[in-house]
Design goal:
15 strands, 6-stranded mixed beta sheet, 11 helices, 5-stranded mixed beta sheet, 426 residues, alpha/beta
């Protein structure tokens, strides 16, 4: 048999084998997996409805989630792409057979940017090794797209988490398929019914007031039957981070707003992956617009003659209606004790205060118990405390607590405090 005929036969056999392998991997005969591995993210939208499962992924790109020039290069900041890829429900096998939508968001529903719009995720084919290789490649593509969205400049100088959830609801067509929404956000909304710029960050009544306000304003998204996950709550990239009790309050707030939106399941967590901020590389396009900051109550100092008063907001140290100091308060109390030592005190007194809600007796008991808890913590740190008192709401710092019959939760939070009065030499 001529050599050319043998070579031809071998070539045909090799080509047929290659075709079979590529077909089993889910690729066309001449569509190598490494040639254009991310084209699946730019596929045509499928809006036929039906029982197909749908997954919506949202990335908060607002200013508070991004480092700025004041952020130290070594500071830890949220890594939204890594956080989302580790979230339950976003593993590639769970996405396969359904539709995927991915967007970044900031201040309004109109600026939600659907970079991936109801794209079908076809099941990986082939043997287990080929399936895993193909899924790893897809995961790399998804991570790249998430990083692009996370790094994109904000479209506005606001943060509207409810608006983003409303946009996600539009992607979830009614039907029998599983519907999931996964959001990476710090939860610091500063516009609309959930605007937190004047929040007290303490207490269930304030949370319920926000829910009522959003329901009355018609700003609650329709998430009936959806499984909703919010991750990274309270994890900011700039400004003062919330205390543990304040973070717990934020988590409870977004859980209630999610439940009020009709979701079948709400999972809200403060956990998030992080990375070093690195050198600031912002383009400066938004330099003229500073996002209104959601500021958390923090320890403050007020000198007056021989007495310097250190004010510790209740939400920095204590959970709602509790006098127990959590382990997370140690850093704050260490700083307070260090500052008292720097003042070289002649005497130290600790005074507890509450707001006007509840009975006077309960207020006095709670304010005294909190003052005693702070005294014990200071004594453990080598600070002698001469006087401890609980004043309930007798000595408010912020008034009025009610405006036109409605509670001012920021004023109430201002009044819930422990004051450490340090008397010094002249």
């Amino acid at each position: 048999m001529p050599l050319t005929r043998i070579s031809t036969r071998r070539f045909v056999a090799l080509a047929l084998t290659l075709t079979a392998v590529m077909a089993g991997s889910g690729c066309g005969a001449f569509d190598m997996p490494t040639a254009r591995p991310c084209t699946w993210l730019t596929g045509a939208s499928d809006d036929t409805g039906g029982a197909r499962k749908r997954t919506v992924v949202l990335v908060d790109r607002s200013s508070s989630t991004r480092p700025d020039k004041a952020t130290a290069p070594t500071a830890r900041v949220p890594d939204w792409p890594a956080t989302l890829l580790a979230a339950p429900g976003l593993a590639l096998p769970e996405l396969e057979g359904g539709l995927l939508s991915v967007a970044g968001f900031d201040g309004t529903r109109a600026t939600v940017d659907w970079q991936v719009d109801r794209v079908p995720v076809t099941p990986a084919k082939g043997n287990e090794t080929l399936k895993q290789d193909r899924r790893d490649a897809r995961r790399g593509c998804l991570e790249k797209r998430l990083r692009q969205l996370s790094a994109a400049e904000p479209g506005t100088d606001r943060t509207d988490v409810l608006g983003a959830l409303a946009a996600a609801a539009d992607q979830l067509a009614p039907g029998g398929g599983r519907r999931r929404v996964v959001v990476a956000t710090d939860g610091l909304a500063n516009t609309g019914c959930a605007d937190l710029r004047s929040a007290g960050f303490d207490g269930v009544p304030e949370i319920e007031a926000v829910v009522r306000r959003c329901r009355t304003a018609g700003e609650l998204p329709d998430l009936k039957g959806a499984e909703v996950s919010l991750v990274g709550i309270g994890r900011t990239a700039r400004g003062r981070a919330p205390s543990s009790p304040q973070t717990a309050w934020l988590t409870s707030l977004w859980t209630r707003l999610c439940e009020a939106s009709g979701a079948a399941r709400c999972k809200v967590a403060a956990t998030a992956r992080s990375h070093a901020a690195g050198r600031h590389t912002g383009s400066g396009k938004k330099a003229g617009k500073t996002e209104p900051e959601v500021a958390f109550p923090a320890v403050s100092e007020r000198p007056a003659g021989r007495v310097t008063t250190l004010t510790l907001p209740g939400s920095v140290l204590f959970a709602t209606d509790s006098a127990e100091l959590p382990a997370t308060a140690r850093g704050t109390l260490d700083d307070v004790a260090h500052r008292i030592g720097e003042l070289h005190p002649l005497s130290v007194a600790v005074f507890g205060h509450t707001d006007s809600r509840g009975s006077e007796q309960h207020g006095r008991q709670l304010s005294l118990a909190r003052a005693k808890a702070v005294r014990s913590a200071l004594v453990q740190r080598g600070i002698a405390v001469a006087t401890v008192r609980g004043y309930s709401d007798d000595r408010p710092s912020c008034t009025p607590e009610y405006r036109d019959g409605a509670p001012d939760y920021a004023a109430m939070a201002c009044n819930r405090r422990v004051e450490v009065a340090v008397t010094v030499r002249r």
